[in-house]
Write a structure and sequence with these properties.
By secondary structure, the protein is an all-alpha fold. The chain has helices at residues 2-18, 44-71, 89-103. Helix 1 packs antiparallel against helix 3 (89-103). It is elongated, with a radius of gyration of 30 Å. The mean pLDDT is 75.
Amino acid sequence: MMKALRTAVVAVILGSMFSPALALAKSEPNVAPVAARTAPVTTPVALANAAAAAANALTSEAARYAQREQQSQDVQNFRGGAVYVYFGSGLVLALVIIILILVI
């Protein structure tokens, strides 16, 4: 009898921990999509100027990045950091409860 009760309690705890809380999920209401906005009509010269300005901004940003990379001498020796695994307090609490139930 005690073993069946212990098994049932562990099953309920595990089931409640790993089941999705669909009742608490907040769904977004169905709304119609916003109509596509039309872009203002511009001249080809204005479009070319805007494209050139965007390309110039990207080029200057890339040049600044390349310059910073050249100044930093430790880039070649970079090694990634260690991987850390973090167990939150919820997982630790659940494990303590399960161990206590199995022991008692």
